[in-house]
Task: inverse folding
């Protein structure tokens, strides 16, 4: 490598540092151009990282990690108690954990869903995506996948700590593995549902802060409404309706399905579904909500982001 | 949606076939492209053959420029007619088009909470570049558009000029064969406008990337474009090469130091056609009937003992030719 340049006058100038910057002009790229699979994967990873504030300013990391800490703390405490006091079973089941900690989970959805979609709508970034080799549905799928996997992680990691605690306390390995696997299934169902609902609300509320408020409000209101309905139905002596009202609350909907299918204790025993028919209706509601919000999202992107 | 004329498009004769295989010097062709939104016609029977190099697309707001760009990107199907860009069919090969074409939107489109580097790297990946290449090319491209140290700061704190450069960089980062630049000088001050136009010219002539650049100002595009297209209300007004349109006009601009009116009078007396700008001015233009007219100007100036400040062959300005469409 030479460290001398020739100035227009013909003198040779030796750069002090020994390096010379050459302006080599615009370089063309002849290498590989990857397809839609890579594009969707990159956007998925970008969403997953961004939800946790990675690659974003420090203040964007505060909320998600605070909520992760809140979600992780109880399993650590439970594990410690189990190890120190020598209980014969965990004080909380894996599926019950999701309903017990629904507030921090809802808050996490409320923070993450607007990040995933409202930001691009609010700042008009969609044209930059749509002018690239991907389809509108690719964008929606990647953002949705990133959010759903992020939610799955924040639910499964604490449950896994719960499992580790149980194993350290020398509780029955088989029972706990089965319980943990059931928790995984319930988490998967809940992550898919909450991501679909959260993303759809956020996609229709692009303004800053409004999306966060809308998501948390909807999740809290439907939960409260569903409990109120169940209470009224119960007091009227209609145990069936009390169970069905749980379909309005994503957490009780998933808990109702999962506890019946897995044969474990439901989180809200007094309003749990009492028959296979009721569970069938819950499953139907689940499918309709996920498919319906998905269709709404795709429609929203077909209309809203035509550049 | 572009406002336009409410009249339905007239029944069109069958479009002439597209040249096949595409000629290498033709970047964009459209044949009888019509786009209607309900009862509004955004583009009406637009037939164009645009060369490689820098093409300027001029029209007022709502003339149909953005609609044409969306059609060319394969994001909006034309109501009728066909369009190709780099030999690819805009109706069926949108994904392939968007791999080799870059687009700079007119609107604000930058998230404020990331740095220019992060955004451009991300968007390079979205264009299909592998990770390490994306980082390399993002740094390179940002340097070419003139963003150096600032590129690590969040975009929220950028000036309009810097934001326009980021928008341009994301359109170039994947080394497209053609870029569609929608009103790149919008919102810039005169100095920023000059810088941006210089960049556009360099993209077309030094980087070797074809450019379709839109503006509602004809004057600024004639400085950088090899070819100018004017559309109004979705209808093609004119499509011409800049060199042809700005060919030498048959007039010489003359400026003398003193006694302008007397010089004019003497020239007229000797049979020259003189157009004086204003009463008593030292500047006027002389119609170049033949080369002896230039000698005559020098002779008259010497006779009156005045100095000649300049004798300049005038060029046509596109603004004069299109004055009626580009107000």
Result:
């Amino acid at each position: 490598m030479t460290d001398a340049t020739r100035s227009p006058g013909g003198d040779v100038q030796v750069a002090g540092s020994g390096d010379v910057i050459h302006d080599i002009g615009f370089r063309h790229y002849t290498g590989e151009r990857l397809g839609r699979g890579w594009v969707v994967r990159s956007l998925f990873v970008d969403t997953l990282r961004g939800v946790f504030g990675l690659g974003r300013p420090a203040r964007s990391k505060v909320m998600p990690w605070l909520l992760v800490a809140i979600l992780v703390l109880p399993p650590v405490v439970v594990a410690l108690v189990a190890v120190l006091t020598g209980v014969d079973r965990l004080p909380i089941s894996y599926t019950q954990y999701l309903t017990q900690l629904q507030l921090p989970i809802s808050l996490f959805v409320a923070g993450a869903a607007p990040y995933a979609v409202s930001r691009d709508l609010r700042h008009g970034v969609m044209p930059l995506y749509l002018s690239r080799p991907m389809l509108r549905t690719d964008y929606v799928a990647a953002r949705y996948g990133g959010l759903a996997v992020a939610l799955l992680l924040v639910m499964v990691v604490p449950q896994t700590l719960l499992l580790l605690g149980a194993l350290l306390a020398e509780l029955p390995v088989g029972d706990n593995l089965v319980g943990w696997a059931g928790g995984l299934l319930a988490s998967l169902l809940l992550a898919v549902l909450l991501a679909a609902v959260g993303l759809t609300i956020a996609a229709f509320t692009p303004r800053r802060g409004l999306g966060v408020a809308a998501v948390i409000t909807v999740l809290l209101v439907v939960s409260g409404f569903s409990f109120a309905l169940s209470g009224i139905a119960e007091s009227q002596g209609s145990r069936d309706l009390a169970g069905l009202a749980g379909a309005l609350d994503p957490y009780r909907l998933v808990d109702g399905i999962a506890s019946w299918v897995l044969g474990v204790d439901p989180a809200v025993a007094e309003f749990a579904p009492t028959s296979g028919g009721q569970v069938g209706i819950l499953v139907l509601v689940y499918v309709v909500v996920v498919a319906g919000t998905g269709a709404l999202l795709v429609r929203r992107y077909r209309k809203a982001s035509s550049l | 949606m572009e406002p336009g004329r409410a009249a339905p498009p007239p029944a069109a004769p069958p479009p002439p076939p597209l040249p096949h295989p595409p000629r290498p010097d033709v970047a964009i062709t459209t044949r009888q492209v019509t786009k209607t939104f309900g009862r509004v016609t955004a583009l009406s029977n637009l037939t164009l053959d645009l060369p490689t190099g820098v093409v300027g697309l001029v029209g007022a707001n709502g003339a149909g420029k953005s609609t044409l760009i969306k059609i060319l990107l394969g994001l909006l199907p034309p109501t009728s007619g066909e369009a190709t860009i780099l030999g690819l069919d805009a109706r069926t090969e949108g994904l392939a088009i968007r791999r080799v074409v870059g687009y700079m939107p007119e609107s604000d489109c930058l998230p404020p909470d990331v740095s220019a580097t992060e955004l451009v790297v991300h968007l390079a990946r979205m264009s299909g570049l592998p990770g390490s290449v994306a980082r390399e090319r993002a740094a390179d491209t940002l340097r070419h558009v003139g963003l150096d140290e600032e590129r690590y700061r969040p975009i929220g704190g950028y000036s309009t000029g810097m934001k326009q450069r980021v928008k341009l960089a994301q359109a170039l980062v994947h080394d497209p064969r053609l870029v569609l630049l929608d009103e790149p000088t919008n919102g810039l001050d005169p100095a920023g406008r000059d810088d941006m136009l210089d960049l556009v010219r360099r993209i077309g002539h030094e980087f070797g990337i074809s450019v379709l650049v839109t503006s509602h100002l004809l004057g600024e595009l004639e400085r950088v474009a090899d070819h100018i297209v004017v559309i109004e209300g979705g209808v093609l007004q004119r499509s011409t090469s800049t060199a042809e349109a700005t060919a030498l006009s048959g007039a010489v601009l003359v400026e003398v130091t003193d006694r302008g009116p007397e010089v004019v009078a003497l020239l007229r007396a000797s049979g020259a056609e003189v157009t004086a700008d204003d009463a008593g001015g030292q500047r006027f233009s002389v119609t170049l009937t033949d080369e002896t007219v230039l000698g005559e100007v020098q002779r008259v100036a010497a006779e009156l003992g005045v100095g000649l400040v300049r004798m300049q062959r005038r060029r046509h300005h596109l603004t004069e030719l299109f004055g009626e469409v580009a107000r």
